[in-house]
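Final report, results section. Input specification for complex C-07:
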Amino acid sequence: MSRTTNDSPTTLLEKIWRQHVVVPETGDTPAVLYIDLHLVHEVTSPQAFSVLRRRGVAVRRPDRTLATVDHSIPTAPERWLQGQPIMEGQAALQVETLGHNCSEFGIPLLGIDSEHRGIVHVIGPEQGATQPGMTIVCGDSHTTTHGAFGALAFGIGTTEVGHVLATQCLLQRRPRSLAVNVEGHLGHGVTAKDLALAVIDQLGVGGGTGYVIEYRGPAIRAMSMDERMTLCNMSIEAGARAGMVGPDDTTFEYLAGRPMAPRGEAWDRAVNHWRGLRSDADAEFDREVSIDAGELEPHITWGTDPGMVTTINGNIVSDSGDRHRGALAYMDLEHGREIAGRKVDMVFIGSCTNSRLSDLRLAAAILRDRRVAPGVRAVVVPGSQRVKREAEAEGLDRVFIDAGAEWHESGCSLCIAMNGDLAAPGHYVVSTSNRNFEGRQGSGARTLLASPLTAAACAVAGVVADPRPLLERARRIA
Amino acid sequence: MSTGFSMIRSRSVVLPIENIDTDQIIPARFLTTTHREGLGRNLFQDWRYNDGGEPRPDFILNHPASEGCEVLVAGRNFGCGSSREHAPWALLDHGFRAVISTEIADIFHSNALRNGLLALVVEDDVHEWLMARPGAEVTIDLEECRLRAGDGVDTDFHIEPFARYCLLNGIDPLGYLLSRTPDIECYEARSS
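Structure output:
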């Protein structure tokens, strides 16, 4: 990779952008931007492969492409009893189609039988495919997750999936930069998810449109990679094209020894290069906002977009506009009322936002030696088969099962609800996923987004509840 | 991709809702298709039909006046959420050729233009005028980058110049990208 030489201070975004420009942007034409890693899944790729086939074009760099199945794969254990999941016709065809496409075009596939299979945004980092300084795309908006490693990572549509398959490039205008400075440190029981919801609360669900967010400051430096991924994952919910965190020792320690990470001398060279990937001290951002992590409480959404959010002990604060009125009607909630104490029918712990081992440990810290409240269905879905094995190795599956929760195979599950995992109409679902849109978890289902701690606490209480008192008790017992 | 089109002239349909996400435009349960055709019948499915699949009489697309309309005027931040290109495919399949709002989400915007669905961002005053007048006769002149509606709107609009060029001339951006293969080979040689 060529190094940038420039005297004026530059942002991380600018550095990565410059290193990937194949043909510079002009007034008439966007830049041709090189893509280092292209992640592919079953739902947004079939029509792109059809275009390639129709035009007689090969995949330019199968070695820079990695495919898996996650969206439409059932996760419920009973659907896997015979060794193969039961899928309805069209979903089965879609999964089969990806298999055919990958074998025809020579693309590595972590398929339905692979022990490395999982949610695309969980396995990229897990395999070490996701690395600092890379440009990474996928036909999925939560590709922003990979920005946690100091990569420029964003979601694209199916036409652009075809562009990258054929040319390893995209036509792009340079996005603007937005610094989110996070001062202080998150308090006990307050997680990266709560910070993500607070950022969306501050920016609004369209506030980040046209920007790439760089999360900076002491609270970010103190975060694990899992936490940074949760935060970057939700950037799209503020409308941002991408979210990123400058790489540091935490990043390098995470990546060292991963199957697809560089080894030996190549590793040393890579780390040396990666250390230069940070925004210069005086770099100017197009926009900056600040947030004090120390003042944050656990957050939970009450409405039908992630910006309709309040603190766990706060009230539902809506405006009188149509959007909020519609949301309150859909959710059957009232303006001005407390969110805590509201009935909960279901709890979902999983999704590319919060399904990694540390997320499951948080949920288990609450559920250990406790029971899911009567009448509540709690579903825990690990982000990958590897997360599943690691969780089982430390007994987390027993914690969940003993508490009365379901323990599933990996996949997108209830985040997208197109795989058999579904919430009932009218039911309230406290979910660690990323979208509370109408019908997202099933027609008429009502989603409340929260952290794994809060979701687990709600499962135990049977109502919306603050996790911190339960954590205190867990700490005293330990 | 529509080839060489330049003018849209149609009555408008107004959806006065902010932050319409792509899950509303086309719910995920319809994404198991391996084709891009036929999604129009599920456009705005859960707003348009009741649980029994009957059209909801209060939803605007079910009004006889909406029939044949090619221009959708929607509240701020249209198309947020998922990257599914099925959203513009569904809008186009239904018969829409343009979406107008004060803000359009990034990925949707790009997906729309790549498929020949004009996604136009307009100023607040223009938007207010259009929102207040469902069924207004709207003219979008892509050649002149000019938007006209009734006797109240006559304004320039901005559209990404390369997208406009491709739409006007029926050019497929993939063809352009493939024509840059020598540059891509150079870049790869330099970077390896």
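Chain B touches chain A through 54 residues (CB under 8 Å). The beta strands of chain B are 7-15, 71-74, 98-101, 118-121, 137-141, 146-149, 153-156. This concludes the modelling results for the funded period.
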